[in-house]
Design a protein that fits this description.
Number of helices: 12
Radius of gyration: 22 Å
Bound molecules: inosinic acid
Helix content: 25-40%
Largest sheet: 10 strands, mixed
Number of strands: 20
CATH topology of the largest domain: Adenylosuccinate Synthetase, Chain A, domain 3
Strand content: 15-25%
Strand order of the largest sheet: 9-7-5-2-10-1-11-15-19-20
Distance between the termini: 14 Å
Shape: globular
Structural class: alpha/beta
Length: 432
């Protein structure tokens, strides 16, 4: 029965790739439920260092199926490149399954993403430019092309003709751009469909069978709850439901099957792109953290904005996700920094707020209320036993648990799989 959601709890880049790779030792299936190649999941294990964008981070365990669910938007070229890269490095990809219902990110989505950003000017969102927003727009508008459509030339032709007709109007009349060459795109789609054919399936039924067998399923989120389309800092969000609700709709998994919801928090905050980040550090401590932790985007290489841990946003994230466990990553980055601060409230118009404000225009004016905690000098990097953590680091973790109101069950002390402290196991052992 059990499915476990692994959700980014802040603004993405919390280290979900490492966490999923680590937890997948006990998983029979790892399923991506939302987003697309805007995600960049870094995994370092005994097979090497990998940057995944679409392939679930469970791919490295031979006992686990890796599944791309219906809620994901898939750029077939990117997926094929990623699979080739894995195969060249000896990673087996024969247990990958791609939902026939997942929508395709087309070249025109990427083109529109870039044109729309340019048109936003100073109000640009800072998207990853991977065509994610426009692909989800087409899904909602019911003119999207699904992965399964790439396997049926007749059906694809009709669907693609309608989509290209509409896109060419927008490209030529609104943006003055060149129209899409239908024949070339159609041929490319057929080629991608053939190359992906062996991976494409109805994943809903695979998941149903796995649940009936009592398999452990990890629901791998992308991005973070503060970028959720409905609950994040709209319009500075991504275009999908990245919170736990998105796992159920994005996979066709009943909420009653979700036994645990794991919020992945980084020990401090980062955000790429525009939008409010109240606990932002615009000083040398922020720059030090950025360089120490190499806080640059895995997908775009952009420098990430850095801040202290934001307890107000964290509590909000916990409330919309119902976390049953937290994983705290990158604790080691704070080694040697003293004092450390956490944002425990916001101040706006002389008022103190302890709950996350609903309106962007209020969020943008909030000032952080800091609490200082003593830092630690003894390194936590690479520690695998909680008892060896310095007392100040333990106090820091305890303060975060209080603010989030959820226990930290795993602490990550480095990028490698084994650099992890299990305080309380999150997944039961596999049924075998
Ligand atoms: P989009 O998802 O490319 O449309 O970008 C929308 C916003 O989400 C931008 O601020 C991006 O920087 C941010 N974003 C998208 N994917 C990620 C991610 O994987 N990590 C962090 N930020 C992301």
């Amino acid at each position: 029965m059990p499915a476990y959601g692994i959700v980014g709890a802040q603004w993405g880049d919390e280290g979900k790739g490492k966490v999923v790779d680590f937890l997948a030792e006990k998983a029979d299936m790892v399923v991506r439920f939302s987003g697309g190649s805007n995600a960049g999941h870094t995994v370092i294990n005994d097979q090497g260092k990998f940057a995944l964008h679409l392939v679930p981070s469970g791919i490295f365990w031979p006992h686990a199926d890796a599944v791309i669910g219906p809620g994901v938007v898939v750029n077939p070229g990117t997926l094929l490149d990623e699979l080739r890269g894995l195969q060249e490095r000896g990673v087996a990809t024969d247990r990958l399954y791609v939902s026939d219902h997942a929508h395709v990110v087309m070249p025109y989505h990427i083109q529109l993403d870039l044109l729309e950003e340019e048109a936003r000017g100073a109000k640009a969102i800072g998207t990853t430019g991977r065509g994610i927003g426009p692909a989800y727009v087409d899904k909602i508008a019911r003119i999207g092309i699904r992965i399964g459509d790439l396997l049926d030339a007749d059906y694809l032709r009709g669907r693609l003709e309608a989509a290209v007709r509409q896109k060419n109007q927008v490209l030529t009349k609104i943006y003055g751009a060149e129209p899409i060459d239908f024949d070339q795109l159609f041929d490319e789609c057929i080629e991608h469909g053939e190359a992906l054919r062996s991976y494409v399936t109805s994943v809903e039924s695979r998941i149903e069978v796995a649940l009936a067998k009592g398999a452990n399923i990890l629901l791998e989120g992308a991005q973070g709850a503060m970028l959720d389309l409905d609950h994040g800092t709209y319009p500075y969000v991504t275009s999908s439901s990245v919170s736990i609700g998105g796992a159920c709709t994005g996979l066709g998994i009943p909420p009653s099957e979700v036994r645990g919801i794991v919020g992945v928090f980084k020990a401090y905050s980062t955000r790429v792109g525009a939008g409010p980040l109240t606990a932002e550090l615009d000083d040398e401590v922020g720059s030090k953290i950025r360089e120490l932790a190499w806080e640059y985007g895995t997908t775009t290489g952009r420098p990430r904005r850095v801040g202290w841990f934001d307890g107000v946003a964290a509590r909000y994230s916990a409330s919309i996700n119902g976390f049953t466990s937290c994983v705290l990553t990158r604790l080691d980055v704070l080694d040697g920094i003293s004092p450390v601060k956490v944002c425990v409230a916001y101040e706006v118009d002389g008022k103190r707020l302890t709950s996350f404000p609903s309106r962007l225009r209020v969020q943008e004016r909030c000032q952080p209320v800091w609490e200082e905690l003593p830092g630690w000098t003894a390194p936590t990097a690479g520690i695998t036993d909680r008892a060896q953590l310095p007392a100040e680091a333990l106090a820091y973790v305890a303060r975060i648990e209080e603010l989030v109101r959820c226990p930290v069950d795993v602490i990550s002390t480095g990028p490698k799989r084994e650099e992890s402290i299990v305080v309380r196991p999150i997944l039961p052992d596999r049924a075998g």
